[in-house]
């Protein structure tokens, strides 16, 4: 038996902030919440609400049959570099078209995405 994953994208309620290495990278009241199958929801921030000076594009990429090809960025904080901790779909497939121009962050030790 095969289960089909579906994507739903809705406005994320409230204001969201992303921090790395103790610094605030961005804050947005225009973030999107993506739900994909049974996976935990992911918050996507509009690129213009993120301090892009903290991010460094990498050559890493991944492919998703529902969203397309993701490009990655590392976060450069004072204390350390978080390799490939940010992803973006520059040309998402139709099912995920709304996340174009948005960035998502891999929550890990030192990187937090929180509703404020």
UniProtKB/TrEMBL annotation:
Looking at the record, the residues that make up the DUF427 domain are 17-106
Gene3D superfamilies given in the database record? Domain of unknown function (DUF427)
Task: Write down what this protein is called.
Answer: DUF427 domain-containing protein
Q: Which InterPro entries match?
A: DUF427 (IPR007361), DUF427_sf (IPR038694)
